[in-house]
User: Fold these one by one.
Assistant:
Number 1:
Amino acid sequence: MILNAILITGRTINQGATIENKTSSDYQEATACCELNQKDICTLGISPGSRISVKTDHGDVVVKLKENKGNPDGIAFIPMGPWANAVVDPDTKGCGMPGFKGIPARIEPTDDKVLSMKELMARYK
Amino acid sequence: MTVITDALCPFCGCLCDDITVVVEDNKIRDVKHACKLGASKIMGHHRIKAPMMRKDKNSTFTEVSYEEAINEAAWILLNSKRPLMYGWASTVCEAHKKGIFLAEELGAIIDNTATVCHGPSTLAVHEKGLPTSTLGQIKNRADVIVFWGSNPVHAHPRHMGRYSVFAKGLFSEKGRKGRKIVVVDVRKTDTANMADEFVPIEQGTDYLVVSAMRAILSGHADVVPDTVGGVPKEQLVKIVELLKTAKFVSIFFGMGLTQSKSRYKNIDNAISLTFELNSFTKCVITPMRGHYNVTGFGQVCSWETGFATAVDFARGVPYYNPGETAANDVLIRKETDAAMIIAGDAGAHFPADSVRHLARIPVIQIDPYWNPTTEVANVVIPAAICGVEAEGTAYRMDGVSLRMRKMIEPLYPTDTEILDRITERVKELKGE
């Protein structure tokens, strides 16, 4: 029921197509999700579309589970955006660049809701 | 109805210059030839209607005049001891010049979105230089294309058709049939699915894999272990042979290199591999730049200050040291006490700790659209969309400058006009 994975973040076509419309449900659909391969999804014991909690040393976030056949075992991918950035590593490693890839993460099913962009940002205030 | 042909797309670093736009009653009715990304941006949607302000970030905004918003923005910047001016990727070079002038006037830090994409590439270029070429050279000559940590099917959808994989040119008349495509990535992406050779590497091992390829290239395959970064030595030998015997190799790299472990050292190593391949054949390397004019800011900032990004004017002269003066450095250290975010979205694209600090300090946002930065802003100034409603200069990912055209008349002031007015007000308040 728990998956320890390495998290990476990055662009997707739907994230890019909605990037100028971040208040939309389309943007949330495109970016508030986490892609795993089928084997890792089986480890969690749930189906794509279910909600999962992604926790790292830097934060936690609830997103929707998606299947991506191209992911190797133990690699989780969240499209770049506010949901991904709730859990990435802020350390710029002396060169200005935070750690958007290669973050150890603990993933498990959850009944908690996926926060909207506004709700997510309200957590910071 | 007006049909505009050969317009430039203001989305990604490809700066596609063959877009057709149908305009009627000062509204864009149709976009042709653009990809999904470009079409969505050019068509546009609901805008921020008017300037807005609020004191308390948990309260709702009140609509105000441009004069009031600009006055408040000037006061915030002037009262700040350590202002940060961040963004600049989705605006034109003319606005960059104004922004750098204002940063110097304020003694501010000015940084652009490269800080979360190709900032490390800039550091690597300092170390090694950049053996590169225009995309036209690659279209006309390249017979081996490498995408390393880059997924153009999703991030630069027309790159492969216009400049690389499928493009037909003077010495590449066969297009895709005359080319070999190599993709190095952690995941089997949609770009990897199109490759002749997919090299799946373990996350964070890019530096090791490049080093192994350099060893093989220099005739020391014997020191390379059986697998490097999860890649069998035989495959690395095969790839190196493919590169060595090509007529023209073009390596494109993305965030897979810049954001992974080792950061700029990955690119430093990849540039060294490129140099060394030039002992055998022609080889060039090019960063896949994201926003359409993130390259332009690097150009303007370099000729204005001597540095490409993360420039600190606090000492009265430009000072540059990413790791100390980049946007996330000063936000995570809670050092900056006010921020102006323009043509970029720090709220969406910075780590939580940085956004948490933005939520605690006065923030001015200049942008056409409501986005996560708006949620933590105090002053919001809506602007025209450059490349759609405002003309200006932009730099393609290969450093070629192109003129963005205006497709429709703006209903909002341009970034350049807003920056001019803020600067004018700052000078008035300073008594200059």
Number 2:
Amino acid sequence: MNCLHCGAPVLINNVCSECGLKQEYLIRAWNTSLYYYNEGLSKAKNRDLTGAEEALKTSLRYSKLNIDARNLLGLVYYESGQVVEALMEWVISSNYQAEENPAVRYLKLVQGNQNKLSAYDQAAKKYNLTLHYVKQKQDDLALIQLKRILSSNPHFVNAYLLLALVYMRAGSMEKAKKALQRVLKIDRYNPRAQEYLDAIDQSEKQHGYSSYEADEDDASDLPPMDADGESGWESEEELDGEETAKRKIREIIERGAAAEDVGQDSNLEIGSYQEIKYGKHNVLYLCAGLVLGVAAMFFLIMPNRIKEVRNENLQLKSSYSAELASKNEQIANMQEKADDLQTKIDELQGTIGKMNEANNGTSLDNNLLTALQAYMTGDREAAIAALGSVDLSNTELSESARACAQTVVDNCADILDPYRSAGMTAFSAENYAEAITQLKVYCNLKPDDVEARYNLASAYKSTGDLASANALFDDINKRFPDSEYANRDENASTESDTSGSTESGTEAGGTTSTEHTMPEE
Amino acid sequence: MINFDEEIKKFKPAAEMNQLEDTIYKNDFSDVADVLIEVMKQAQQPPQNKE
């Protein structure tokens, strides 16, 4: 035999080897616990939930290991709307006995429906809030909250009692009575409900029925009691109260009060967790909402949005086109102005050219007049010196001026020859500056002397004045193509392009001068 | 006649889900076996000397 308390072996003297308790005492306590359990069960069968609660609590005081008493107490709590207390009893029961305990199944069933569990929790919170309202005498708010509480937890006995109390304080005795009758349908001998009903009856007797309002439409104030087909308040009144109570108690007992009768196939209905799959519905609603939202976006929002974007693009395009047209017009105007300015520039350049030509002609005329004046006064050297700057081969010189100058030159040939000899000597001595000075005067007045002209060009080339040198070389090639000096310096122009330094020009000139001073004769 | 204020004081707040664990721990009352064990423990303790 094992100990009823700790399960350890019992000694011969009926004392537990572990905890030392006499088994006689434990057996008596267990029997007493069973007695009160049976009393509680009997009261529960009569739907005396308050009495059953008291008896079952006493049973547990004698033996807290009485699983049946604890499970039945949980059911009584659950039936009276105290879900948290019911869960507590079932949790403790399942801890004492984890296997073959209906409390485990109760917990699974209740906790399997989280939505309803949350509704019960919210109802408890609102009930606590309503207590605060009632204490603060805010009866309107309390009534609103109580109706919400009873719609989510229609077996909440304390909420009905509180509702009845609020109605009584407001003088709505009929409504209070109906709320109390609801309580008595759940808990037939609820002492507080009976006390309130007695008080209402006494008050009605004192004041008469006519003193209270006739609440004909009160049925709508209270929610239907059960979701399993039992209708609201008025239809239930027509039923035989005793029969209804018996039936309900029978259901409770069949559900699990007698623990040994409860099996996996029993029709236990705790809440409506099996009837409504809130989770599934929520997922379906969510999916449907998503599909509708996407469809609405594609069919209602997107076309408008595309239209707006297209309009914006068109406006942008038109604005850019207008801007481009104005820019093109500005460019055309500026091009026209540029053409006008270019025309003016050309005209001015033409004017400048004419003025330069006029200046050159004036200079030539002045030199010629000076020479003539010196010649006429007998100063032939001065005449030659003045004419020295006049190139008789210049095509701009008029024929009369050329003839006049040629006459002077012919008459002063003896004075002109020393210029040639001095120039040639200076060129041979590589005194190119002096050679240029002397030979320039001679060559201007004797443009047909090829040798002097060639040496002058070579002197220019040697000093780096390649432009003058090339002009002279070209003149020689053009006017005296058959002479030995023609085409002797074809590279002069090329050198003028490539040679930028005076040093290289001087070097080339030196080489050339050596060649020119010893022509092939 | 009912005294409303007194009656309202009889209503206690309902237990909420977040208080479930605390409620379970507070519900650990003693039964007859626990009382007997406590009595035996006290009986086994040596009596205090009275001067």
Number 3:
Amino acid sequence: MVFLGPGLLLLFLFVIFPAVQTLFLSFQNKDGFAGLTNFVNLFRDEAIWNPARFPTKVPPWGALLHNLVWVCIHLPLTVGLGLVLAVVFAKAPRWVGFARSALFLGIVTPMIVGGVIIRYLFEAHSGIIPQILGALGVPKPWSSGWMAYPETALLGLILGSIWLWVGFSMILHSAGLSSIDPELFEAAQIDGASEWAQFWYITVPLLRPVTIVVAVLTLFWELKIFDIVYVATMGGPGRASTVLALEMYFAGFRALDPYRASAIATLITVVSVPLGYWFAVRRLRA
Amino acid sequence: MRGWMLVLVGLIGFSAFCAESLVVIGPWSGAEAEPFLAVLKAFTEKTGVPVEYRVMRAEDIATVFPAQFAAGLTPGDLVFGWGWWIKEFAGHMVDLSSEIAGIPFVTEPIIVEGKAVGVPYVTWVKPGFWYRKSFFAAHNLQEPTNWTDFISLLERIETIPGVEKAAASGDGVGWPLSDMTEHFLLTFGGLDLFMGLIEGKVKWESPEVRAIFENYLLPFLGHASEPIEWTAALDMWWDGKYGIYFMGNWITGMVEDPNDLGVFTLPGCKAVVGGTDYMFIPKYSKRVEDARKLLAFLISKEGVALRVSKGGKLSMRADVGPENYPPAEAALAQAVGALTIAPDMDDTIGGDWQRAFWDQLKLLWVKPEALDDVLRILDQLHPAAKG
């Protein structure tokens, strides 16, 4: 206990106390106890929840839905791509190591820098994506500045962030691959199993614990995404790419409303915990 | 061991050196900061007090400083910030009444409960659309005298080979778009309507405001580029990809040849937005007296004359006149001399509305059909509507 003391003290001061304080504030307003008012107001605010436009009209759909869209697109792509890349690189010649390094660079790049890169990647005049699409005759806004248009801003952020995160998935899957007994693959080859069959019936099931860890951590990353959006679009145009953490920041530091900011923080936790629990416990048991 | 000792002594010496510097935090960087750095250098030469200048945008100051204040700390000894934000955190600022006594300011200091907490430092105006005289001369273009002329000018510019759109639209966090919108509101709505919008007495969805958007701003947007990062837009405009560019007068300090700059307001304009950068001294500074000395130098006749002589800004002292300006600023001062100066709308309202204003205009620029939503949200988020 003596040895645990300093760590527990730090944990209490910098994690537990602020979390409890945030929860407490989320049920308050400037006049005192407010019950669920802050949360009701959040769901009445189209900046947070605007399902009437989803999915038939272009964003904004509200920060909560934007986060969920982020999860639906980014999660399978980064987890799946990371797994595939790990397998490909494990079988590829040594010299392609530079490609693996390039992919891993994304995860060691500060997210603020990542946001700037995404912004310029999709910029109308200097961005490679609009330039290529323009050359192929794709119409606006796809061949223009993605961050400037509500149709493309959110998707651009999500696609751009895949490079920033896929290295994480790839490295963890690579580590998992190295722990699989090679005799399993040798036996399968002797039995005449194809590459695909080896991947599907050996690699994927044996990597399931790693995949779940990657998926859970990716999910949390997506639900608390902030820096990339802040730098690249500030949630715009017209809230078309805003996310919960950004709205929390605006409430806390621009509107100077700690109660609304705390309510959004609590909402992020409420959304994250069940999803994380479902992934981590239910799927692991399955 | 000896090596480590040397490193330690070096570090202590470096720390001591750093500790002596007065930390000034302001929003300008690159070419925009150079004239201000010259003034800081003059202060150091005069007083022997070294000054370290750090760049931090007003948005970041608004984010970082509240937590620092709560801890009784400050990252800077003299800081530049938004007026609305300084008012909000006035309790954390040093009273500068003695420093500003007797100074004939053009723009008023920020006084909260009898204490001067924000002091204006030079002024800027957002006079209208800038153009290159050489570009206009080469293509036989003239400044417009009425709205029809203005639209004709835009159409003619777009026929010039190499021009993408008639007008460049600067972006960043969104303020260049709000500057342009404010110019349209002032020109076609007048000062009373403009002030009514600031105070929340006039609604954005009111017919007269909607008419300005529908009849003037939206037709103009047909000739304007999509929002481009404002310094990149500046370069592209200077290189001839765009014919005109709406910007504040600090543009004169950011182009290769300020003497090639011409500027015109929208025809019929009688007021332009102008303002100042406010500075404050946090009461948690350990160098309050030195910071006071620096502030006094910055707002002295000598300090202001030196600053405005470098271009990009105008004097905030009535007794430092155009004779101190470079030719481009002198011409500008003459051009806007007859116009009323209106406060910057988004800087005055501040808070989350400011951010929403910028963001909604970014949407309007690429989706003019979103006008109804934009106006509705601007009304919804106005502090007057929130109570």
Number 4:
Amino acid sequence: MSVTDVEAPPRPSPKPVRKPPRKPRPAPGSKRFSPLRVLGSTIVWLFTAGNILVLYWLLTASFKTPVEIFTKPFDLPYQWFKVGKPFRNFIYAWNNAGFGEAVLTTVVLVGLATVVTVAVSAPCAYALTRLGVRGSGPMTNVVAIGMGVPFQTVIIPLFVVLSKVHLDNEYGLFVLYVALSIPFTVFLMTGFFRSLPDELEEAAALDGASPMRTFFSVMLPLTRGGMITALTLNAIGLWNETLLAIVFLKDQAHFTLSRALFTFYGAASYQSEYGGLIAGVAIVVLPMLVLYLVLARRIITGLTLGAGK
Amino acid sequence: MATVTTPATPPARAVKAGAHLSRKKRLFWPFAAPALVLYLAFLVLPTIATVVLSFTSWAGAGDTPEPNGVTNYTQMWASDSFQYAFRNTLIYVFLGGIGTFALAFLFTMVLRDMKGGKIVRAILFFPNIVAPVALGMFLGFVFKYQPGKQGLANYVLEGLGADAAKFLAPSNVTGVVTASLIWASSGFYITILMAAVDRIPPYLYEDAELGGASPWQKFRNITLPMTWDVVGVAGVLWTINALKIFELVFVLAGPGTYAPPNEAWTLGIYVFDRTFGSNGTPDFGAACACAVAMIALVSVLVVLLRRLMRRDAIQF
Amino acid sequence: MRVGRLTALTAGAALLLAGCGGGDTAGGTGENALPGVDQFLDAPCPEAGVKPATDKEFTYWSMWTADEPQGKVLQKAFKCFQEKTGVKVDVQWLGRKAYTQNLVPALNTDAVPDLFDQDVSKVGAAVMTPGGTQSVDDVFAMKVGEGDKTVKDVLSPSSYDFPQNKDREGHNFMVPYTIQSSAWWFDKNTAGDIQQPKTMDEMIGLFDKAKSDGKAAISLDGDIPFYNMYFYTQLAERYVGAGGLYKAATDKTGQAWKTDPGFLKAATETAKLPKYFIDGWDAAKFPQVQQRWADGDSRFLYVGSWAPSETREYLDKQGAGTKINYGSFQFPMPEGATHDTVEQMSIGFSVTKKAKHAEAAKAFIAYFLNKDLLAGIPVVADNLVPRADLAVPDDLKQVKAALDDPKKEHVLQYDGIDGIAGGKWQTDVFDPADIALLKGQITPQQFVDQLATKGAEFWKNQG
């Protein structure tokens, strides 16, 4: 934006170079490298190494024979490769242990259950936090307490009742998954809704939006992060849920992955089918790992935003 | 988020607000009902049923429940299995909780300034997504005791010159499980705490350093107070989850197909054992009694925790 | 988008896996494979002795999984049954825990299967006692499809005619198709051809020899209470006979443990064994110690007659050519013992009380006991059967001889003490004392005293 001068600009005087401000000298008594920090760093690296070790073990063991698993747990697999059937364990788990069928069932069941849970919980959380109805606070607490009920305690009454209406199968399980995820999801979403400023609602109201519109077009999109967090955490939880699946799923064609894994786990030792078992575990764990890696940042921001309030 | 300044026309606004507010309030039931109904039907009512059933003698195998007063409770209190389970559960809640949170704070402090801190944090979250069955198997290998072919933990111990330890012996297994629990849970709580610590303005720390504060003093006077609320919420979550612990202990302390020796039981395992019978006949009345005990325990602990953590909120 | 590519990759992998169908065949594929497996599976179907008149199908919840050897034998039987009688079988392969986790809750409803199986103690405790089974006495009169022979004619009476197989009205509630026993197992290749020791000292001499040969003597997975239980129960049974342990355990005063000197003597004999246990038995995680026996680290293993089938698969999948030449022997008679016992557990079919297709289910039971079909159990699954006229694989011959020996007294596995009070007696009273005895923390006298006092406490508490 220089103005063109007629004359050539005079030689610019050297601008004083701004030196960065000097770092404050450390006050006496406080060290940069405290022993606590060194200890902390060591532990962190140990833990990280440990977690990576788990993944490594899982992946290598799923390609091993039982003898290798027990005598050389941390070496690289070779026997199946030598024999020319490297994927034998996975094929076994997929076909013989029914994991192939279970994948489809689990994806559909868990996917639908998490979506419906959020669809039902988000409006409820909104209602409890922003609609200013008397008694919302205690009601929220009552719902949150539901998180503390262990599943084992409600299984048999639920089973007896659901079997009377012929819902003691994957449809009943679907309803249960939704119902039992509601406390946590509502709790999480209330955190998000509470953090939204009031002014937005007022602005929307002033613009003539009905409360429904306000919710769907203004408030809900803003909590998208929270919804994704809820979806992901519920998905992970339900994917690994075993106890209810054991009791309610009796038709093998409709087993979920963790149900199939559980039966397989019980039977594997009788046939020493440990390679297949770990391959089965890998089939159960890896999709979650992928989901987590893709959405890690979302999960973490979501959790923290909810917890930050 | 820009704030909208509205021209002040109080009466008109009040009317609008009144009508709007009442329309908003009418939304309450349509919005909240589905979730609340499901919650009531599938969580609250069965829990009430469980409480009622805990005063009956019922095998849950096609017979009818017969009221028997507090017999289930007295039998439960007197049984060794329950006492072990109760003790172990409390150990996991308290020791495990303190360990996890101490570790989480430590990690938070370190990870903040570490390059690649975000990636490490993501890796630390990993055990939360792995099925406990897999973790149990893995840890079985790590803690193996076999002279000549030690598991990883003993391998390291022997490398350091110590004697190999029998980690999985029933008398030691509670310690091993607590350590495993801390390892598996820390990622989740690190995440939450890190976010809370991230929100503390850095100038507070710089001021403290200028003033010559030691790391412990900084922790006690800055970090802890500023994250108190979040620690409270995380503490409640931990208590609830630690009380329910079942799968990890079941798979780690026992062979995985049968229940572990009763020294290692938790309340969750006790309920499972009475529901499905360790060798056949279930005793559902007893399972319900323990379930009620669990619910009571969790309520007491959460109330205590909230009371302990309560103080004025600090806005910043 | 990243997610899109990932999905494509996974879908591709899934298709690849689905395309390469087929798992392993039963009976192993390597050095240890059983002969005759394929022969059995391809053999033609025998005729059915009983054809159901009205039922065209029934439901069966299996304690096996489809890929287990027993599962394969049953699948062939279903195929044959449908071929010969037109009855379709709807089977759910639910695994060993099916009876507690699925069947028992289902007893509260009307949605029960028609046929199920499990061992007799478990069925008795979990299903029969609450009234979930019906009498199968009529099955014993059915023909098996070998001329005029009925089920009663072909089964050994000791496999079903014992008190624990009777329901409240005194009828049988289970028809066995597999028998299990237990023994000391060793590999003839490394230990030589050991003969049945006649005295405890002889047996301990074998253990000493193992140790001097540089091996551990006894493998034991200490985290399985049932395996820990074997030693004491086997020895005690030889002193007090069938029913003795059960009577002492159910004695409300607990004094029975002290009045019969046999219990103390058995404890003293048991206490001689722990110093031969492999190092690390008490910090074990099943099946690591059993695998160590299979790998040759220790010489002897005391478990049930499923030892060969389990360890065979373990070695087999390595395909490394290691082969075990299974040998076995029973506990010898200790000093002063008067009962020559052999342990037996019957596994078989039961029919639920509310079964809708009981007729078809019972007809199938009779059909399965046909020689040509039941032969699958020893041939494919390497288990014993209740028919004396069927051959068994070499590794089980010694155990079968012990079971067929008319001089031996048959005792139910653990004399049924594992089922007392739904298993609570074992967990609360027996296991802690047993482990302490095996670890050398208490003396045999203290062991017996502890059983007495804790037992009395337990029964008082039970009310």
